[in-house]
Amino acid sequence: MISLAGPRQMPGAFAQLALNEARLAWRSPRGLVIGIGFPVGMLVLFGELPRYKQHVASLGGLTRFDAEVPVLATLVVAALALLSLPAPLATYREQGILRRMAVTPVRPGLLLAAQVAVNAALTVIGLVILFSAGVAGFGVAAPKDPGALVLSLTLCTSALLALGLFIGAVAPTVGSVVVFEAASFFPLIFFAGLWIPIPEMPGALQGVANYTALGAAVQATQDSMQGTFPPARPLLVMAAWAAAFTLAAWRFFRWE
Amino acid sequence: MTAAPAEGCPAPAVEVAHLRKVYGRTVAVDDVSLSVRDGEIFGILGPNGAGKTTTVECVLGLRRPDEGTIRVLGFDPGRQATELHQLVGAQLQSKALPAKLRVGEILAMYRSFYRQPADIAGLADSLGLAAKRDVYYRSLSGGQKQRLSIALALIGSPRVAVLDEMTTGLDPQARRDTWELIESVRERHVTILLVTHFMEEAERLCDRVALIDRGRVVAIDTPAGLAEKTKGAKLVRFTPSAPFDDRLLLDLREVRNLERAGRRVVVTGSGDLVNAIILTLAAAGVAAHDVEMGTSSLEDAFVALTGRHPREAGVPA
Fold first, then answer.
1. Secondary structure of residue B44 in the 3-state scheme
2. Which residue of B has its CA nearest to A8?
């Protein structure tokens, strides 16, 4: 009964919705703190540790710090998509906010679109801050293939926002969102190599990491930073995650 | 679509014909037909679970009827919801809005949804929200949230406003203020579909009322006409001095129905009802105190027509 997008939306409506979603993100800044504050803080911390400045053979001659930057980039993406996006969606459904909007000329799908747009914009801001701070302040080499970097991070963001939408779509209550978040965020961050860099993982774990969205994103980002266009596999893995979870979110989303 | 209206005989603003809606095995609406004239305040009155809310949800296009047809300003709510929602404002029972948005931000956002929005300052002022525009939604009192919800129903300058239990949870003063607002909205020639279980509200505001019970329309008339219709029926209220079995009175041939509202007992029936009740109770050793006779108010009409009391109504004594 409630269609995703009406034939004619009022022109100012999306801007107003996005503005209020941005205000809400600012006023309950859990995603902002974990998604932007935490990775930038880690960048500063790792940038100051001497151990992270040594070149390591098992990382292909990179320093630990160089290897950590793509991981922190995926942390930005994952925190905003998984810790900032789903909770408001579940709240909107549980409290009838989508239902209230369904009796206005604006279809509730526009509210979801505004929520996704705001988190995508925050992701871009977070990544720009992370890479600028890294390059300007901590001697991170400027990305040698910026086009490939943008492509890799766009695919990574799409995959994770799709997963966040899916969680927001299926989590039955606002309370259960926390469980879904934890069950997705920590494994994904682990396989991105936050605790053990992927090249130093045992073979079986590496195998898993290659097929997770963030593991693939770290490889593609690392390659782009070093000036090698990423191979097809990580790009396809991210695209597949994005497609699968977009479909699943679409299929399972409940308006009320 | 309905045919073009003839001059001087405007088409009804809302037309519901043989609406039926079933959830699983529960029949929410059995057979409801009603026609709301352009510019009138039409009340839908009935106890909880009577099918009032489901009826207006179908009128608003939130639910698709299993049977029957609905036209609102000539539109089919099931197929033309987006166009319809430009012209119809609604206040739903769930008043959910994001907790950490300010009143002014919510008003500005909802205003942006409509082609011909109302003036925010004027609306906020007439609903007593002018001083609250910088306050977070979560910090509003229940009454203020309710008034904001009404403001959002009117913010698109609607031709039809659907208000579902708009004064539930308001204190008496806020309720009277809201009634005055609705009367001023009527002067702007807005058609209002008002769902309520407050008899006093329906008597004060409504041009006509549909009584709904168990998914069916029991009667449609003016509040005065409904009261007139039930003149033959009698209604007696009293407070018993001791507990007694309902069947004691229900077995009397004068008694049609018995309802309890707190300590008060409400009995409907015909003939020499008062004497029959008092004598029967006295024989069982129970005295009837504070006996009141039916006053043929809308409330009594409801009991007489449905045999039931709108028990949750909190009808002012």
1. strand
2. B82
User: By CB neighbour count within 10 A (0-12 exposed, 13-18 middle, 19+ buried), where does B187 fall?
Assistant: exposed
Q: Could you tell me how far CA A135 lies from the centroid of its own chain?
A: 21
Residue B184 Cα, gap to closest chain A Cα (Å): 23
Nearest chain B Cα distance for residue A90, angstroms: 12
pTM over 0.80: no
The verdict on a CB contact (< 8 Å) between B113 and A10 is: yes
Q: What is the pLDDT along chain B (317 residues), one digit of tens a residue?
A: 444 444 445 689 999 999 999 998 889 999 999 999 999 999 998 877 889 999 999 999 999 999 999 999 999 999 998 899 999 999 987 767 899 999 999 999 999 999 999 999 988 888 889 999 999 999 998 888 888 998 999 999 999 999 998 887 778 888 888 888 888 888 888 999 999 878 788 888 999 999 998 899 988 999 888 777 666 677 888 999 999 999 999 999 888 888 888 888 988 887 788 889 999 999 999 999 999 876 556 666 777 677 666 544 433 33
Q: Which two tokens stand for residue A61?
A: 């001659």
Cβ distance A95 to B96 less than 8 Å, yes or no, reads yes
User: β-strand B67-72 against B14-23: which pairing, if any?
Assistant: antiparallel
Q: How many CB atoms lie within 10 A of CB A3?
A: 12
Do residues B193 and B36 lie in contact, with contact meaning Cβ atoms separated by under 8 Å? yes
Phi, psi for residue A190 in degrees, rounded to 5: -60, -50
Distance (Å) of CA A95 to CA A100, B111, B137, B198, B277:
9, 21, 14, 26, 49
Helix H or strand E encompassing B220: strand B216-221
Which ranges of A10-108 would DSSP assign to H, the alpha helix?
11-27, 30-32, 38-48, 64-78, 86-94, 97-101
Phi, psi of A8 (to 5 degrees): -135, 110
- Asked if residue A157 lies in contact with residue A77, where contact means CB atoms within 8 angstroms, the answer is yes
Q: Name every chain A residue with its beta carbon within 8 A of the beta carbon of B98.
A: 20, 24, 88, 91-92, 97
Q: Which residues of B touch A (CB under 8 A)?
A: 60-64, 78, 81-83, 85-86, 88, 90, 92, 94-98, 100-101, 105-106, 108-110, 112-115, 152, 156
Q: Find, in chain A, the residue whose alpha carbon is nearest to that of B102.
A: A20
Q: Of A254, A243, A106, A107, whose CA–CA distance to A168 is shortest?
A: A254
Please give the Cα distance from A188 to A239 (Å, whole number): 16
Contact A107 B82 (CB under 8 A): yes
Q: Which residue has the tokens 């001697």?
A: A139
